[in-house]
Specification:
The protein is an alpha+beta fold. It has two helices and eight strands; from the N terminus they run E-H-E-H-E-E-E-E-E-E. Strands 1-2-4-3 form a four-stranded mixed beta sheet, with no helix packed on it.
């Protein structure tokens, strides 16, 4: 699993860099924190996710801050959204290979200076 804080998905250069990193890692599930996007549909997802990734769970940003995404290879895992909020996503995954299950969470919370 690849977990990456990208600070925004809204530029072609970042989308290409993310796609390259996902392909390089050979992961089956990836998590992206701080997408800075209020909406991600499959057309947008395909701009940065390699073709074998076809399942997403998404928590939108609030303005230009936050946003979380989990993407997975649907041929390898079935996934059900367990819980989601502005600051986390938890998904129950089951392996298509051996029926083992696991439940990863990705969390994002901005720093607040005092």
């Amino acid at each position: 699993m690849l977990n990456w804080n990208v600070r925004g998905l809204n530029a072609d250069g970042k989308q290409n860099a993310i796609r390259n990193k996902i392909e390089e890692s050979e992961c089956l599930v990836f998590c992206i924190q701080e997408t800075k996007m209020q909406h991600i549909d499959m057309a947008c997802f395909k701009k940065f996710a390699p073709k074998q990734f076809n399942k997403i769970a998404f928590s939108p940003s609030l303005g230009a801050s936050g946003g979380i995404l989990i993407g997975c290879n649907g041929a390898m895992f079935s996934g059900n959204l367990h819980s989601s909020s502005r600051h986390h996503i938890t998904v129950d995954f089951t392996s298509s290979h051996n029926a083992e299950s696991w439940t990863p969470s990705t969390v994002y919370g901005p720093c607040q200076g005092k």
